[in-house]
């Protein structure tokens, strides 16, 4: 015959196992948020029902993993600008910094705002902006005929990414910027917080 102490030990182990199975089941269902409330309720109720004692039951319950936050709303993924590759060659220039301005990515060299890439999908907001002044328009457009004044930002030149000469023009402009050509680049009026490289 099993003595009373041994029976109490068996009963305690059985109750402990039942508690664990209960919370594993709750944790694995799709109602994880409700299981947390049930978990708190069981902590209160088992104090009177369990021969293990409240603190032992509490320790067993708290050892179980918390339900995953499956009902949390996920933030929408931030849309990446598909034209930032144009700035890749700037990465090795110590004077290069990158920032955002009115929805486009902009490149600064030695504190001068030089180029902007914008990718909104519709014209005239889908291409490369050349930050320059009116006095340099004629010379730049003569060298790169695909450039034209932007329809909205008339002081800057622009080329659509749909233009057949887009890549060649972009490469040439990057070369001019790296060479510190005075025709490309303006002193920004309001200096925003630019970040070095693509960080």
Structure overview:
The protein has 5 helices and 7 strands. With 199 residues, it is of the alpha+beta class. The chain folds into 2 domains: 4-62, no CATH class; 84-196, Aspartate Aminotransferase, domain 1. The protein is elongated and about 90 Å long. The protein starts with a helix and ends with a strand. The model is unreliable at 192-199 (pLDDT under 50).
Set down the secondary structure blueprint:
Blueprint: H1 4-28, H2 32-49, H3 54-62, E1 96-101, E2 104-109, E3 112-119, E4 126-130, H4 137-143, E5 148-149, E6 157-160, H5 166-178, E7 195-196
Antiparallel strand pairs: 1-2, 1-7, 2-3, 3-4, 4-6, 5-6
Helix pairs in contact: 2-3
